[in-house]
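New to this. Please check this record:
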Amino acid sequence: MTDKRKGLTCAIVGTTFWGMSGVTAQYLFSKQPVEPGWLVGVRLAIAGLLLVIWSSVTNTKEVLAIWHHWQDWTLLIAFALFGMIPSQYSYFMAVKHGNAPTATILQFLGPLFIILYLAIRHWRLPRRIDAISMVIALFGTYLLVTKGQFDRLQLAPAAVFWGVMAGVGQALYTLIPIRLLQKYDAKVVTGWAMLIGSLVFMPHIVMTPLPNLNLMSWGGVLFVATFGTMFAYLLYLQSLNYILPATTGMLSSFEPFTATVLSILILHTAFGLPEMLGGAMILATAFLQAIAVSGPKPVPQK
């Protein structure tokens, strides 16, 4: 297998796992007594622990080195609290109040908020391609939440709110750890951030009785934490060793594609032509940004 094919395979499989994770969460929220805060806490704890252990084996020195400098560990904690937790919790809340395809697509509004942040920070107008991306993304969002009926929302307001917040969370998740990722391995940064983030949910997890789940549902919880988080993340990172970050970013469209197809086929989620067109427009902005911008490697959202 050529390096290019390895990279394409890793990116597609990794982002497909993320899409499957969203559908699994939708099933757990709608068919089983599972709530987002509990699932997010369990997911972060398991995936974070596994990533830190993995890093301890492959990159022993960096695992503890990040705690030797106060500037680094304070930024790491900020990343956990203001990047990791908002992106994770908002996404699952959007899935609970809406569905996996919509939540996953709205999450792709993250680049829009990054454009706005950079424009304000540098006090200059967005580039032409950024302005075009913003217009396309906003109209796509409008189509997605109204389902083509422009006089009313067809999606629950809570789903719209949390979906947009997931986009904001993704932007923060990308912006906050840039300096850390220039200094430390991404597995170390993300693993510790997940573990720190899980601590916020620990009181809730400890005080909440274990949900009464069947074996298949417990398998779903484990899938979300392992294949849907850790393995998806590692495959995504591995792809960056073989193909350009822009290519990997574009292939991340397999996440909403997988979420949409599986949600329709398995959970019978209604997803019509207007929603598909709106989703395609939002995803198109990610393609435009991936083609136009070559910057630091993106941090995987999931």
In short: Residues 3-31 form the longest helix (29 residues). The chain has one domain: 3-292.
